[in-house]
Amino acid sequence: MASFFWIIGSTIVISAISLVGIFFLSLNAKHLEKYLLSFVALASGALLGGAFLHLLPEAVEKLNADSVFLWTLISLLAFFVIEKIFQWRHCHKEHCEIHTFGYMTLFGDGVHNFIDGLIIAAAFVESTSLGLVVSLGVILHEIPQEIGDFSTLLLAGFNKKKALLMNFLVALTAVGGGIVGFFLASYSDQFINILIPFAAGGFIYIAASDLIPEIRKETKTKESIRTLAFFLLGIVLMYLMKFVE
To answer: Which sequence ranges are marked TM in the entry (predicted)?
Structure first.
């Protein structure tokens, strides 16, 4: 039962990150870009570190290698399809109604957050240390994502209070995913065995498809060194998490 409270606590913390836009509203564009890129680099390293240092080794202990690689590949394809389905959320103002892409952003985030909750639940049911690793990876990824989503809602015509409220309510779907995931994981061990490599595939896809391309855009030497340092820091953090009992 302890894992249930870890799941609820972690998903609530992750949902609260949707309020991070309050802090970044006070920053000018130059400082915002600097902080965002550092967070993106940190999240990239943490997600890859979580996948290759924790999730995949754990999955290999539960399933045969062929099954692990298959479910990882299925996850990569699934995240690609999900992203393509909700790609209309990135449409430009001249190509769609401004409120439409705002609500599509919220709907897409709801699906994404619910999946995060499922993954976190399966990880905590397996072990507290694995749950903490997955939660940390999700948290680091959510910070730049939520800032971007908050900015998107403002562009879509929401006022600041409504954007924060709607973003927070949608973020709470992670808690729902965590609860559903807990009962599914408690009912079937196979659910955990499948979802761990699925989570690894998701981490790899998000890092390789969404985050790393952003930090590759940086061409200035000083800033490139900084982003590389944060990227490596993310990997080191995940390596140190291997010693968390």
So the answer is: 6-28, 35-56, 68-86, 164-185, 191-212, 224-241
Instruction: Give the rounded distance of the alpha carbon of 153 from its chain centre.
Output: 19
Residues 6+ apart with CB under 8 A from 164: 18, 19, 21, 22, 150
Which residues neighbour 92 within 8 Å (Cβ) at sequence distance 6 or greater?
A: none
| CA distance linking residue 99 with residue 101, whole number of Å | 6
**What whole-number distance in Å separates Cα of residue 142 and Cα of residue 12?**
13
Helices (H) and strands (E) counted in the chain, each on its own, are 12, 0
Domain edges within the chain: 2-17+39-243
pLDDT tens-digit series, residues 215-229 = 888 888 888 899 999
The closest of 30, 63, 76 to 199, measured between CA atoms, is 76
Please say if the pLDDT value at position 193 is more than 80.
yes
Which H or E run includes 190? helix 189-205
